[in-house]
Design a protein that fits this description.
Two copies of one chain form a homodimer. By secondary structure, the first copy, chain A, is α/β, with parallel strands linked by helices. Helix content of chain A is about 45%, strand content about 15%. Chain A contains eight helices and seven strands. In chain A, helix 2 packs parallel to helix 3. The longest helix of chain A has 29 residues. Chain A is globular, with a radius of gyration of 17 Å. Chains A and B meet through helix 1 and helix 5 of A and helix 1 and helix 5 of B.
Chain lengths: ~230, ~230
């Protein structure tokens, strides 16, 4: 009686098709020499504030652009455009995640010359579940977690932490106000993703941002060294 | 080439089946005289803190119980059990929402006599997208939004706000620290759900909780009056 097996089968086909598109995207990104960073988190973790600060601060040294996914509104693209970097909104309608084909379409619609970019950021829809299974062709997937969300989120949403490469704890300026427990958070992240690198920062005050930028610069340099070999 | 129409069709069947179970649950809840409140929000909005405080404070006047959904861990049930109220954890695995059948199974497994309850609370999985389409047989659906998440969430996740009956703005104790804009939030909620009643409270300090309890008591009384007619 349960229709679930059929639903699972159809989902698998959707995922398989997504992987094909994502693989093609990744090859294209590498050929162009652009390093692609995707951001996933729950709604309200501060992805957009972090990305606005990142675009603004990186712009003087690197060529940057961003794609931003939401179910509705162009609000985030408008916010990010204040950074003066090229930004494109992707509206997903009722879908709780971006798919590789949406990224591909957005890049084509904008006519961006990927060879002219150092970093392309992709902000996913705010969701700690759906985006985990969809490869977007990115080089680095970053999961963000704000100090106000509670230390147990990695244990409750292990799949998304497992699908990510690094974690960022955001809104560190509010850590004291919410009695944030940094050690418990570290312990929970390491429990679901042993060895995961974790950054702690505040987009509002700028604290900790430079450390993350140093990491990004290193990642970009390494990816281009590998490509050149 | 796109498998989406088929996926949508299968999803519709899942939803239809869910509606049948939800309808039966609602009839059963009404016959037992228990008022059922479900909570939806993004991860980290404070659903569990709010529910713990609610169970603790309501317990002296009402017979209360709670079901709590999560992808993984029994953490929330353990937290809620501190209220001394009967609590049951529902683990959803990879599913980003509760379904009516899970509620039905949980009630049966626990062997709760629904006629002995005034309020049954159901805390959904933390997600602003998936839970919106699944009727759980509840009388009242409450969407929670914390002051730290940003004022634009109703515009970005209109469907979940549309599927809810009332909204609660949580963590009001942090409103000043994050320069929360109450009027913008109200405007955005009313834009997607005109006339929606909105409560503002802090489970930490207790501010605003009594106003919400007054509303619940009134809802319970009204539902029993209707049932008796």
């Amino acid at each position: 009686m349960s229709p679930e097996p059929r639903l699972l089968e159809v989902r698998k086909n959707v995922l398989k098709q997504n992987d094909v598109v994502a693989r093609a995207l990744r090859i294209r990104f590498h050929a162009a020499g652009v390093f692609v960073v995707s951001l996933v988190s729950s709604p309200g973790s501060g992805k957009t504030a972090f990305l606005e600060k990142t675009l603004t601060m990186l712009r003087s040294h690197y060529r940057v652009a961003a794609l931003v996914g939401d179910l509705a509104t162009e609000n985030d693209a408008a916010r990010l455009a204040r950074s003066q970097a090229p930004v494109k909104q992707i509206i997903t309608g009722t879908l709780c995640h971006l798919e590789a084909a949406m990224v591909q379409n957005a890049v084509e619609e904008e006519g961006w010359n990927l060879g002219n970019l150092d970093f392309l950021f992709i902000e996913n829809v705010g969701n700690l579940v759906c985006p985990s299974s969809y490869d977007l062709g990115e080089d680095l997937r970053v999961v963000l977690l704000s100090v106000t969300e509670g230390e147990d989120k990695p244990l409750k949403y292990p799949t998304i932490f497992n699908s990510a490469d690094v974690a960022i704890v955001t809104k560190s300026d509010l850590a004291d106000a919410v009695e944030f427990d940094w050690e418990a958070t570290q312990r929970n992240i390491q429990a679901v993703r042993p060895g995961m690198r974790v950054f702690q920062l505040s987009a509002k005050t700028g604290d900790g941002m430079q450390e993350f930028f140093g990491f990004l610069a290193q990642q970009l340099a390494e990816s281009r060294t590998v490509a050149a070999v």
